[in-house]
Design a protein that fits this description.
single chain, alpha/beta, binds aspartic acid
């Protein structure tokens, strides 16, 4: 198979380092561990592997990470963690037994339990999910175990230290032919364990890919890549074959999940493509995330649609607003002063609207409004809740005329009132604001207009 990225055609078979990350559902039980081994064995270029903690085996099962957070919470309130901790150990022992490997983690369990009871911290507790799964996987595959606590570094303020990490990791990984690097955590300068936010093993995979200058970062999960729309809203949406980092950023920001939002940055920096693959259907091509591509879906024009509910609009009216210098700045300063950030800023001659995340300003809405009134003395100011935003994203828009028209036509024909329109200057997206009650039908109308 050939892939195209950065305008270069690459022979997939000739690649020599692939970094491979498996999500929690791909490592939830022995059966999935076996599938993972088959995938690893199928390609010797798959030399470094990043595991998540075991995820759910069935719909009302528990993720091990959640169980470990519960251990921490229970210990913090002074109650016994014997029951819940024993269930965590059972999860791992059932994997070890099911695989028939010769590994006894009793000492590890005892140490972890002791550390949780002796205030090793919330992040430490959560990180043990990946740590223990990494030990099992290393033994099962015969790979070296590389503990990210020594190489993935955070500053004292908790921000990820990308450059120190890259230096330390590149140096270390050169010493190994094959390795398992548990995802999700690293350490602070004083050695305390620190995790990324939930789903953060995706970030570890990206960091390791950058450190190795990998040819590709394969991210294996339980779906065959990104879909053009949320399947809970649009029935049976098509998959996305190719997507650029920028398009993905737009879609993830607006709610498309699969990959952690921050996982894009390290590989984007190094121009490494990400391939989202399905552990349960390994021959599906999945989604290829690349820096640039000249693969366009000329028929569908758009790459995907995503959206979120839960926004509000503050509309400020003042006659001759356009002539008043610093008006916009004062409004934004008022919002900034209350520690909020804005999403969009559509404006007219004598009106300006600011779109904000309702949950983020719920406890300071009054203060934001008072501050705006005080600083710009508007003729009228109003707040409207219940706005949903929809992003229609596609690199093909630059090349085709009439995309916005088709979006508006589709909504009009479905009797949906558009409350806001914003087209990004890159012509990569069109953002539409609609009433929350129209959210699902708008998504379907737009999807059906573009995709057949
Ligand atoms: N195990 C962690 C979580 O459940 C991190 C991950 O899976 O990426 O969020």
């Amino acid at each position: 198979m050939n892939i195209y990225y950065n305008e270069v055609k690459v022979q997939m078979d000739a690649l020599n380092v692939k970094v491979v990350k498996f999500g929690g559902s791909s490592l939830a039980d022995p059966e999935h561990f076996r599938k993972v081994k088959e995938i690893m064995d199928a390609d010797p270029a798959r030399r470094f592997i990043i595991p998540s903690a075991p995820g759910k085996r069935f719909s009302n099962d528990n993720k091990v990470t959640d169980m470990l957070y519960e251990c921490y919470n229970t210990a913090s309130s002074g109650d016994s963690i014997d029951g819940i901790f024993a269930r965590v150990c059972e999860r791992y022992n059932s994997i070890i037994d099911g695989l028939g490997i010769d590994l006894d983690l009793t000492e590890e369990y005892n140490h972890i339990k002791w550390a949780i009871l002796h205030h090793a911290g919330r992040d430490y507790a959560a990180s043990r999910g990946e740590y223990l799964n990494g030990l099992i996987l290393a033994k099962y595959l015969g790979f070296d175990f590389i503990d990210p606590a020594e190489y993935v570094k955070f500053f004292d303020n908790g921000i990820f230290d990308s450059e120190t990490t890259n230096r330390l990791l590149s140096k270390e990984l050169k010493k190994h032919t094959n390795g398992v690097i548990p995802g999700f955590y690293g350490a602070m300068p004083n050695g305390t364990i620190k995790t990324f936010s939930r789903g953060g093993s995706d970030i570890t995979g990206s960091i390791v890919s950058r450190a190795l200058s990998a040819d590709i970062y394969e991210n294996w999960t339980d779906v065959s890549g990104f879909l053009m729309a949320d399947p809970r809203i649009v029935e049976n949406p098509k998959g996305i074959g190719y997507i650029t980092y920028r398009e993905l950023r737009e879609l993830s920001y607006m709610g498309a999940t699969v990959l952690h939002e921050d996982a894009i940055f390290p590989v984007r920096f190094a121009g490494i493509p990400i391939n989202i693959k399905n552990t349960n259907a390994p021959s599906d091509e999945g989604t290829m995330i690349v820096a640039h591509t000249d693969v366009y879906d000329t028929k569908n024009v758009i790459t995907g649609i995503a959206g979120k509910k839960g926004f509000c609009v503050i509309t400020i009216e003042k006659a001759m607003m356009n002539a008043e210098k610093g008006f916009g700045r004062k409004v934004l300063e008022a919002i900034e002063h209350e520690g909020a950030s804005f999403e969009h800023l559509p404006s007219g001659i004598d009106t300006m609207s600011v779109i904000l995340n309702s949950a983020e300003i719920a406890d300071r809405k009054e203060r934001v409004i008072n501050r705006i009134c005080h600083s710009v003395e508007p003729d009228a100011i109003s707040v409207e809740e219940g706005l949903a935003l929809i992003a229609v994203v596609g690199r093909g828009m630059v090349k085709s005329k009439g995309t916005a028209l088709r979006v508006f036509k589709a909504l009009a024909e479905s009797g949906i009132n558009i409350k806001m329109i914003d087209q990004g200057s890159s012509e990569l997206n069109i953002i539409i604001g609609v009433d929350e009650n129209d959210f699902e039908s708008s998504m379907r109308a737009i999807y059906n207009e573009f995709v057949d």
